[in-house]
Amino acid sequence: MSKYYPIKINVNNNIYELKVKANETLTDVLRNKLHLTATKKSCGTGDCGSCTILIDGLAVCSCLVLAVTLKGKEITTLEGLNRNGKLHPIQKAFLEQGAVQCGFCTPGMIMSVMGLLGKIKDRIPTEEEIKETIKGNLCRCTGYKKIIEAVKSIF
Amino acid sequence: MKEFEYLKPESFDQLQNLITRYENAGIKFFAGGTDLIVQLKQNANFNFKYLIDLEKLNLNYIECYKNYLKIGALTTLSNIENNTFLKENFPIFTSTTSKMASIQIRNKATIGGNLCNAAPSADLAPPLLVLDAKLKILSKEKEKVVSIEEFFLGPGRTILSSSEILKEIILNIPRDEWTAVYIKSMRTSEDIATVGVAVKLSKDKDKNEYNDIKIALGAVAPTPIRIYKAEKFFLENYRKQDKQSVVEEIAEIAANESKPIDDVRASADFRKVIVKKYISRSILLALQKLSD
């Protein structure tokens, strides 16, 4: 008999009451239980970054997070970035700068950048900082150049 | 991933109760999860029924005192990387953690987890070995402090029993002039070290002589190791020979003391070549830093 744990998690400022098994990852809960499918599932081992989301403002690979550990934490996914249907400046920049090709890495990439923006507030990041920020997000399409330009363009 | 039950004690008393109650059924301790969850997904041969999350035990801290420094075992790599005191006084921590994985991993991974997972390539091990770290272990309500030199037993194995936890890492703040470097053989930080080299060099300012050197290697033996033979050679010979030949001989000693294996990242022979190069590089770098 599987044991289920009742949890209340805060995702994009919405509280969800769920029952999860101890071994359920946040990626699976987001995608399968909450139907928030912007967060992608790829390597499952924290290497590709496609599952990146923010927990209390810090970029984290959701594939390595057990949902049952999330009591009292604030989770932000790509779906939480828009305001009343309006895209966040970083989302607009990615589209305008051609930083999206197949789009698979994009949600995780943007969430890593959101982690950076939260850290630096209004300061302009250096190119090195931007590169370090996205180091944990693999992109097979763009060659990263336009992604870096998109980040620079919002300042 | 195998199924298990999840427990999150909120005090050390609660932790002890859970350990006593469930240790026979099989327990596993949980810190950041960045190693453990990967292993569970790969169905590593773990025999436990209860996962005990240590997050609420307040072990995420960096405390600075006059002569020593304490780092809680659950301090995240990001917290270590960004800590102002460490940046100014132990820059080897920032330079080492910035070479580990990625920001996403570092936001969850912990110093305790890196040590207790005990990969031979654990990046924090060589720096902590050359810094002579002491490790505080909680064992059945009793605490004991051991030197990090005794901690690792083999790949993935430490002296901890399944009922013990690493609580804290304690470091003396050196009084002499000193520097420490860590060089990691990698393409990017996301790589596991093919070879890791740490060197700590101390200088007696008044006598203007080097009074101590510590050298450690990672990823080239079943555990991270200190190279005492090379350290002794340096102290006995740096005054007698020119810098270049001393460094070359130390590099040779270190390569001979290492016991690397062939694996997916490199052959043993290649690792020995890299050990030699990196030992030279790190000692020369340390010498240069102390003469500035």
Descriptive report:
Chain A is of the alpha+beta class and 155 residues long. Helix content of chain A is 30%, strand content 17%. Chain A has two domains: 4-77, Ubiquitin-like (UB roll); 89-153, DNA polymerase, domain 1, CATH 1.10.150. In chain A, a hairpin with a 2-residue loop joins strand 1 (4-11) and strand 2. Chain B is of the alpha+beta class. Chain B has three domains: 5-56, Uridine Diphospho-n-acetylenolpyruvylglucosamine Reductase, domain 2, CATH 3.30.43; 57-172, Uridine Diphospho-n-acetylenolpyruvylglucosamine Reductase, domain 3; 177-291, Enolase-like, domain 1, CATH 3.30.390.50. Chain B contains eleven helices and 14 strands. Chain B has a five-stranded antiparallel sheet, with helices on one face. A four-stranded antiparallel sheet of chain B has the order 11-12-13-14. The longest helix of chain B has 24 residues, at 268-291. Chain B is globular, with a radius of gyration of 20 Å. The mean pLDDT of chain B is 96. The interface between A and B is medium-sized, with 31 and 28 residues.
Short note summarizing the structure:
The complex is a heterodimer of chains A (155) and B (292). With 155 residues, chain A is an alpha+beta fold.
